[in-house]
Fold this protein.
Amino acid sequence: MPKYFQPEIETASREQLLEIQNRKIVEQVRHVYDHVPYYRALMQQKGVTPEDIHGVEDIHLLPFLTKADLRDSYPYGLLGADLKDCVRIHSTSGTTGKRVVAFYTKEDVDLWEDCCARAIVAAGGSDEDVCQVCYGYGLFTGGFGLHGGAHKVGCLTLPMSSGNTARQIQFMMDLHSTILCCTPSYAAYIGESLAEQGIRPEDNCLKAGIFGAEPWTEEMRRSIEQSLGIHAYDIYGLTELGGPGVAFECEAQSGMHINEDHFYAEIIDPDTGEVLPEGEKGELVFTSLDKRAFPLLRYRTRDICMLKREQCPCGRTHIKMCKPMGRSDDMLIIRGVNVFPSQIEAVLLSEGYSPNYQIVVDRVNNTDTFDVNVELTAGQFSDKVSETQAREKALEAALRTMLGIGPKVHLVTPQTIARSEGKAVRVIDRRKLHD
Ligand code: DLL
């Protein structure tokens, strides 16, 4: 069974990796400067030219990119290739409802799928495996990313997409799935559903799971491993950088190797932007070294994290990131979907409601619950239950259209949501995600 998908690069020496990164960053900065006027202007404002960048040690000279830049340049402003050379988009929600649209050339898709293939092989996958992909297929990157990786590895790939748990279980049992790819919360739910049906962990053929797209704890890992009888591996990524596979866990299960030949990672102080030394906690910033259609330089992920370079028993040499420890913005991840309170507020206001609302998120039986309490004004208040229910349904539909995930809306009587003297408490997140 192969241990690595691309052994030379995954076990390259520090010097070899650095040589690759240095060569790629020089080319990438030149590419971006020549093809992305938006970023060229940022570089000019900072007084940096491509000639100033000789290797990754000069990356700190470059300006940052943020989600706000993505919003301002929507949809084509950060495009780095001719549209005729682009073969794919994927998308995710942005801060104020504008979507983030990421473009891919054929080569970009190819390198993305390589990254996912590395993750699958690291989880013990080979062409002998049946890989059940139940991340969502569509604009979300999860389904297509792991699907492409599984193809490259030569697995028999089941493109299940998310949901329809009864069918997932039927295929899993009948087709002898050996690798499961989905969000950790869905994996936990599948585990519970199996138990409810009296199917014991030893009755399925699964051996590994590749779970990511949302935070999860070591506790949750152990519980999923037990309920499914597998080894559970973490995988990290974001749409802006192509999707899953930016980093992935190996057999050591002690942090995710960043695919350093494609992504250069920095940790910064989120307040000052200062680059922090390796091992310190701060905001994760990535530069994509060779993606051409959407080539983000110094993209601030808002994920709080730590990097560590250590000898890994798996033999991979790429630096590791820990599980993300939180966010430096207010983004919530609910059932794997990114949700910003500002998006909810925008819908409420456009539908004629007051900005007095509260988002309550919890995790019950390993599934996120998502409730939005919205205060009615005196003029809107009605004591007819049917009227209120109809309004709640309409608001739920409007929120689902904006967010891609439907909350349960509760319209509450005027003056019942506690007022705060300082910052309004808009979000109550009762999930315990960090040990
Ligand atoms: O979640 C891509 C992905 C798909 C990753 C499938 C892994 C598996 P977005 O929807 O753009 O992309 O969300 C990106 O999700 O900035 C993190 O905050 C969070 N996130 C992703 N993976 C993990 C993880 C996909 N393993 C945002 N642990 C990121 C914790 C994660 N958080």
Summary: The radius of gyration is 22 Å.
